[in-house]
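Key idea: predict the complex, not the pieces.
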Amino acid sequence: MIAFNVLLFEGFETLDAFGPVEIISKLPKIYKLDYFSINGGIIISSQQISVNTLPFSAIDTTGVLLIPGGLGTRKLIDDIDFINSIKLLSQRASHVLTVCTGSALLAKTGLLHGKKATSNKMAFDWVCSNGNGVNWTKKARWANDDKYYTSSGVSAGMDMTLGFICDIYGEETAQDICKYIEYIWNRDKDNDPFDP
Amino acid sequence: MIAFNVLLFEGFETLDAFGPVEIISKLPKIYKLDYFSINGGIIISSQQISVNTLPFSAIDTTGVLLIPGGLGTRKLIDDIDFINSIKLLSQRASHVLTVCTGSALLAKTGLLHGKKATSNKMAFDWVCSNGNGVNWTKKARWANDDKYYTSSGVSAGMDMTLGFICDIYGEETAQDICKYIEYIWNRDKDNDPFDP
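Result:
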């Protein structure tokens, strides 16, 4: 089983994290889902959902890492301990997936330097300002460069996660998940209806 | 503020509940989101998310009710106390929204008798068997009859919630939410790509 590690923090955006989680859960023989925050315990999303988490220290660091966005990123971007932690975790992870302003947190580590990446439209300038040297691409449903997958706003994280699955396990596997959860997948990562 | 009451239970499907929640949260001056289970406390979703909840007794019963589906419904459908509780809550609620097999729980109360409703494709026969006298419609992204909104599988709950918002607050409000969370809305409730 591959660890699929979901990083949570105060003020994370619910669908950024739990949209991808829904999709990954349909491969139960491949991935094991777990939820982490820097010190563990209860974390409250921007939608007032109280979620119990394990501490970062309990992470199987060889797994996949998911970093959501949300209003909480505005504070965390200046938290050196947090950024250093996600840098270490991202270096060790097999793949790193970010959604929305989660891309800013990853960019701040420096690991996206020289790589293509995207984020949501509403906060695009702010995200770019936290990632000098990143090849920021505004018109993208999601972007993939090396082991990094970055998506545009909130819902785009689901399309990206299906893209990630498609790249590794093939399109039929991704489409089977869509059928199971009746999800209408925007399967072309360059088709971004929100930056026409 | 209108209470938007999300009913959770062991083995609820994450996106059934938290997809609609994401959308409703973009009307923060109208709705207040809260999460409930029959006795309160920690509830674990089918995706292993541990969520803290309040008991049913704490619900502002005049609000909107959201009933997700998930594997947990298979046990609850025969739990008379639970079904009686959601019957009472549904009678008092201004609107009741169900996603996926959550439609079976609502149907079991008898409140959908003579009304048009839908559910997911994978469990459609099982859902129908728990709602005699309901006008079950398989080809529907979602259905609305009186104060009841019922959706097909998992992801369709988000389209339905936008439809609910559109009906009450107009299409511009629904489209603004789509833009904000970069969600590609299937806005025609009769357009169901999963029952071609």
